[in-house]
Amino acid sequence: MSTSPAVSSTPLRLLLRAALVSLGLLALLLTAGLLFLDTLLRLVSAPILATYGVELQSIEQLHLGRERIRIANIRFLAPGSDETSRLADITLEFTPAGLLQGRFQGLHIERADLHLESSRMAPDSPSAAPTLPSLPPLASVVSAMQALPGEAVSIDTLQVSPYLDEGSLSLTRNAQELRVLAGSRDLRLELRLNWHDENYVASYFLPPDNLATRPPSSQTLSGSLALSSSEQSILLADFSLIETPQQLQWEAHSDWQLAPLSGYLQAHALMPSALSALDGQLSLNTRLALPIPDLRRMPTIFSWQIDAGSNASATFAGTDSPLRSLHLLGVDASSGNGQMQWPDELSLNSTAPASTLTLQLRDSQIPTTLLLGLDSLTLDCQLPAQCKGQQAASLRVPGFSLPGIQAEEVVAISNGTVELDTGITRMEFGSGSRFELGRLQMADLEIRQFNALVQQSLSVTDDSSGLLQLNSNGLDLYMPDILQAGMASHAVAFMSGLDARLNLEDPVASQIRSQVSLRNLGSELLPFSLRMPQLHLNLDMSNRSGHVEGQLSLADREVLHLDARLDLDNAVGETTLDIPDLTFATGNDSLSALFFHPPFNADILSGRIRANAHLQFARADDGSWLLNGPLLLNADSLGGFYEDTAIVGLSLNVQGELRDSQDFFSTAPGRVDIESIDPGIAVEHIGLSFDIDTPASRVALRDIEASLFGGNIRSSGLVYDWSAQENRMELAIERLDLSRMLAMAAYDSVQASGLLSGRLPLTLRGTTPSIAEGSLAAEAPGGAIRYRAASSNSGNPALDFVNQALSNYQYDLLDTSVDYRPDGELALAVRLQGQNPEVNSGQRINLNLNISDNIPDLLRSLQAGRSIAETLERQLDSR
What we know:
Structural class: mainly beta
Strand content: over 45%
Distance between the termini: 85 Å
Largest sheet: 13 strands, mixed
Strand order of the largest sheet: 1-2-3-4-5-6-7-8-9-10-11-12-13
Shape: rod-shaped
Helix content: 10-25%
Radius of gyration: 50 Å
C-alpha cells in the first residue's frame, strides 16, 4: 500500500542515501584537499568517513584550481558492501571565501557507480530474516540536510547496484529547501523537501545568548514528489512531517494516474500475472500520529489512517465511498544510538465500504468491474513474515468473460480467519460464507443461480508452490438450473470431509477426498419426477486417477450401487453398476412409490429385480464417452399392470454385452416366462427364448409358446428385424376350447362346444399385427352350437330357418378362415356341416356364416367391466 510515497518508497530512500553518502564524502575530502597532499588527505578523511561506515580506498588524480577542483576517481566501500564504489570525473566549483567556510557552489560528477549491498552471501545460501529500516529522529534528518555544504550537485550517469542500472541525479538546495531530480531510461523523479526549524531560522537573526533561552521548538519537513514515465505523469504527492517533543505527525496526499503506471509495469514485466491493464486515477490521503518513544514505557502505541477516493471510473471509483480507517495498535518499540526501531509486532484493524475496481484479465478483451467491500479486517503480526487475524468482506462482479466462458453476477461474501506465515497464506471461511453465480455460460453448458454456502467452515491454504489446499466438513452447493442441450436439470450437493490439494499447474496431479451427498435431483432429460432421490458418493482423486463409490436411493430405498475408477491422464476407466435385490410389494414398496408422478400408467406390485454391469469407458474423438462391457438383468415373478393389462409372474433373464455405448448383443440365450397376461383375455404360461443383436437390428425369438382358451399357441419363432418394413411368423393353434371363447365374449344367447386347431400367419409392421388367410378347424368328432334367438319370427323365412337350425346344431365340420386387419377388424368366414335332430327329421344342414368384430373395441369393453387392481389382486391371490 503506497500511502507515503515520499518517504517509504525504496528507490527514493536509495537515491537520498546515495546523495548523502556522496555529499558527505566530498565535503570531508575537500577540506583535506586544501593541504594538496593525497597522503594527508587519506589520513584526515578516512577516520572521519569510517564513523559513517564508509571505507575510503583511493583518491586518484586530484587537481586544484583557483575556483575549481577536479578529481579523476574516488574509490570507497559503502556501508554494508564489500564491492568497490566509484565516483569518476568529479568537478567542484567554489569561491575561496565559501570554501574557507566549508561550502561550495556546485558539484558535477560524470559517473557514479555505487554498490550498496554485500555480495559475500551466495545466492543460494540462507539469508537473514529481513528487517524494516530504522527511523532516525527528524532533527537528525533536518540537521543532515542543513549541513550539506553544496548548493548544487549533478550526476550525469548514476548506477546503484543492485537497484538501478542507469540513471541521472540532480540536487539543489538553499537555506530551507532541497530539490532532487532523478531519472532513468523511461522514469523521471522530482523531489522537493522544505524544512521549517525555528531555531535554525532564528540563528540568522538572534544573538546566541537569546537563542539559548528559547523553549524547545518543533521541526517540520514538507515537500512534494512527482513521478513520470515517457513524459506522462504517474504520481503527484504532497506531504509534511512535524516533530514535537511529544510525537511525530505525518500527513500526505497523493494522486496516481494508473494508465501510465500500467504501461510502465508492462514494459518492465512487473504487472501481476492476473492483470493486463489498469486505468483511471487513485487518490490517497494519509495521516500518521507516532509518539516519540519512551524507553521506560513499553509498548508504544500509534495510529495510522488512510482515506481513498478518485474522480474517474477507474481502479477505485466513487468519492462517496472512501477507504475509511486503518489502525496500528500494540507496538513494541526499542531504540539504539538515539534511533527508534520499527516495531516487530503489529496489529491491524480496518474497515471500508464498497469500492469499485476496474481491471482487465489477461485473456479477456473486456474490462471487468469489481465491487469490493471490506467490513472488517484484524491482523496480529510478528514481523517480518507472520500475521494472523479476522476478516469479513464482500465482492460483487457484474460480469466477466474469458475464452469459452462468460460469467454474470458473481457475488462472494465471506467471514473468517486469515493467516500469513513465511510465504504461506491460510484463510478459513466461517459458517455463512457463500459464493453466488447468477449465470455461467460455456460452450454446451449453462448454469444459473449457482450458490455455494459454507456450513461448517472452509479453509484454503496457498503455500506458493502451485498447490492450493482446501478443507471443509460442511459445504452446500445449490444448482437449481443447469441447462444442457435445451434441457434443464437441478441438484443440491452437500460436501463433507473435503481434503483437497489442487495442483494449479497440473490439475490432473491434484488430490481430492470428500463425501458428497446429492439430493433434490431432477432433469427434463428424464420423463418422470423421482421421489426423494439421493446420491451418496465417496470421492478419491490421487496418483493421477479418480475413484468414485456410492449408492443411489429413491424414497429411502437403495436402488443402485456404483464403483468407478478413472485414469485421468488417458481418460479411460471402468465402472461397476449393481442393482441389489429390489423387492416389490403393494403400498410403499411398489414401483410407483419411487416416483412422484410416473409418466406411464403402470406399476410393479410383486417380485424382485437384480442387475449388474461392469463397463469399461473411454473418451471418443468427438468428446463423448464410449461404454463397453457385460450386462446382466434378472427379474423374478414380477406382478403388476401396464395400462389396462394385468401381468402376473413375469420372469426375465438377459445376459449380454454393451459395445460403444449404443450396441448390445446377447452373450447367452435370454429367457422370458410369464404366468399370465390379461388385457381382457387371459393369455397364460407364456414362454420364449431370445437373442438380441442391435448392430444387426435383430432380435431372434425362439420356442414361443402360450396357453389360450384351454389350448396352446406355439411357434418355432422368427428373427425380428426392426429396420425392415415387416416381419412374418406363423403361429400354430392347438385345441382352443370354443366354449371358453364364447364365455369370454359374454354372448349369453350362444353356447358352443368343440376344440379348434389350425394356423395363423402373423405379419408385424413395427408392432402392429395382422393376419391374412389364417385357418382354424374343429377337431373330430366336432361339437354343438345352441343359439337362442330373441324372436322365432323375424319376418325373414331364411333367417328364421337358420336360427331354428342353430338352436341345437350338432356339427361334425367347422372350418374358419381368419383375417385380421391392422386397424383391429377381425373377419371370420365360417363353414359348418351338421344337423339339428329337431329340424327336418335330423336332415343334414350346411351353413356358411360371416362374423366380424373389432378386437380392440372388444378388449376395451371387456376391460370396462372390471377393475384392473381387483383383477390383479385376484390373480396374485390365486397363485
